[in-house]
Each structure stands twice: as C-alpha cells, then as structure tokens.
Amino acid sequence: MSLTDPLKMFDVRGKVALITGASGAFGMVAARVLAGAGCRLVLAAGKADALAEIAGECRAGGAEVIEVNTRPDSEAACAALVAEAVKAFGGLDILVVASGMNKVAKIDEMAPETFAMVMDANVTQSWLLARAATVQMKTQGRGGKIVLVSSARGLLGHPAGYTAYCASKSATDGIVKALGCELGPTGITVNAIAPTVFRSPLTAWMYEDNEAATAVRNGFLARVPKGRLGEPEDLAGPLLFLASAASDFYTGHVLYADGGYTAG
Questions:
Q1: Angle subtended by helix axes 233-243 and 25-36, to nearest 10
Q2: Lowest mean pLDDT among 22-26, 115-119, 147-151, 209-213
Q3: Tens-place pLDDT, residues 54-108
Q4: From its phi and psi, is residue 148 left (phi > 0), alpha (psi between -120 and 50) or beta?
Q5: Which sequence positions are flagged as catalytic?
Q6: What was the pLDDT predicted at 172?
C-alpha cells in the first residue's frame, strides 16, 4: 500500500457491511458513514419503522441496502444475518455491532433478570455475532473487520445504577482483546469504539438550554478536556478507520471517542 496515496487506505467501496442496531444512535452513524463511503449494507434492527427510515436514507444516497427486521438475540438469528449478507452480496467484510441496551437501577433495586437481560444484549449477542462473522470471514480467506461498540463505562464506574451496563461493557472490552489475540493470524481485526455521552435521541435533554440540563452538562463537562459533549460526527472517523485497511495493524483495541474523558 503506497504512502503517496494514503487515502486509498480508507477506501471501503464495494465492501459488504452488516450493521446491527442500525436504527439506534450509533447504528445510524455507522450506516450513514459506510453508505457514504461506498459499502453495500445489510442493516438489521428490531424497530421496523426506524429501520426502514435509515435504510431509505442510505438508498437515496446511492447505496445498495437490504434491511432485516430482527434482533441478534439467538445463535440462529446471528447466523441468519450473516447468511443474508452472503445471499445478497456474496460475502461479508465488515461487522458493526451497534445493538445493545441499558437498564439503570441501584443494585438493591435491580432484579437479577434485568442484569441478565443487559448482559445478554450487550455481551452474549456481541459474542454470537462475532462468532458468526468469524466463521464466514475465515471461509472467505480475505480477512475482515469486526467493530463492537463499548463505552467509557467499560473502564470507569458510574454512581447512578450502572452495575449491569458497566459490567457488560467491561466484558465487551474483554471479548475485543481476546479475539484480537485469537484472530490476529487470520487477518480478521477486532476492535471497539467506546464513546462517552454524544448527541442522540436518548441524550438530547442534556443539550437543552434549561437549568436542569445545564447543571448536569456542566458537571459532566468538568471531566471532559475538550470542553464539550460528543456529536455523531465524532464517531464517524474512528469507525471508518476501524472498518478500512488503514487499521490492518490494529486489533484488540478499545478506541475511546470521549474528548479525553477517560484520560484524566
């Protein structure tokens, strides 16, 4: 790969990408970025209307897209999603696992079933998707890119009832590191993007101009060296890097998209 034309390292045109949780905040970023970069997309989500909306947006921009209204909540479902990519486009090059969930409650108020639900959505389903993608990518013999979504909460605790979420994201980081070691010789890279707060429908209230939002925002910003909350665009560059040949020597990493939040 020539250093005289470095942008070629980021060229993913024609690559086949499967994105789960495509109707969620990070999933929509991933869909827009990879569609705009020329990937052929398999978009999966449980919310049919929102999935159709992001799929339509990507098609309107010229991308080839198929949509699958399902969640990766079983071994069979994960294998079927990979099979959809192979059926539609002949293979799979990029997996982005943007599906997951959070349930907030103090430990003495959280039911064990709730803890298990968060762990299943964020850990087990990520592992099952990575497993299904690995099988296909090994069969193809041309490597591949697996990108999981972690969080700053995989590294740092939180006082507001985040035991399930923090545990699940720490486990996600463990999967990334272990698979980075395991799959290194195959040419399949496994990495994670770990954002802190960024603008989305779930966090929109934090960006509002009122006393309550300002108090929460200022408390949070005191820990962010960049002095602002995240925007969806802040996740775009890291994703394209991890999905492209530019990151071929990077595996087992957790890339914090957090404005320096975890550095201090």
A1: 60
A2: 209-213
A3: 999 999 999 999 999 999 999 999 999 999 999 999 999 999 999 999 898 999 9
A4: beta
A5: 165
A6: 98
Burial class (CB in 10 A: 0-12, 13-18, 19+), 141: exposed
Is residue 67 within 8 A of residue 43, CB to CB? The reply is yes
Tokens 């463990």, located at residue: 174
Structural domains in the chain, sorted by start: 6-195+234-257 (3.40.50.720), 200-229 (no CATH)
Pairing of strands 16-20, 254-257: unpaired
Q: For residue 83, give Cα distances in angstroms to 34, 68, 133, 176.
A: 20, 11, 10, 23
Q: How far apart are CA 150 and CA 96, in angstroms?
A: 11
Q: Are 100 and 122 in contact (CB under 8 A)?
A: yes
Could you report the per-residue pLDDT of 167-219, keeping only the tens digit for each? 999 999 999 999 999 999 999 999 999 999 888 877 888 888 899 889 988 88
Contact by Cβ (8 Å): 191, 180: yes
d(CA 86, CA 189): 20
Q: What is the residue-wise DSSP string for 168-205?
A: HHHHHHHHHHHHHHHHGGGTEEEEEEEE-SB-STTTGG
For tokens 């991308």, the residue is 63
